[in-house]
What we know:
Blueprint: E1 33-38, E2 42-45, E3 50-60, E4 71-76, E5 85-87, E6 90-92, E7 98-106, E8 111-119, E9 122-132
Amino acid sequence: MLIRHIVIPMVFFVFITISCTENHVQPNPTVASLELRITNDIIQRFIGEECEETVTAIARDSNGVPVPGAVIEFGIQNPASWKGTISPEGEITDENGELEALYTVVIERSGEVVIEARSGSVIATLEVFLQVVIDLDNRR
């Protein structure tokens, strides 16, 4: 009896799948609403006096939760020199979903100024009233 050995070469293929994930920071988290606050919405000064007021924008999601990392742009509707300026014009909200800007105006006349904040398609506005104070003693 003759026993033969047959060697059959076998090749095993092993496939290893490696997946990597990265933590992406969303460039502009979803903002459902914006709230604007200002220290004083009525500014009364003599002509030529400068005034600075802090404007705070608060970004919230659809559940009313503050949104950190949201891009907000500030502006003044129908800008004109007598309406003043706001800076910075655009930044990112902090961990509380808030961003502060500085509204600066030199009083030239009485009138209404509308400050605007925008995050994507969400817009909030705030009315500020400028009032010239007349100094009867010095006829200013």
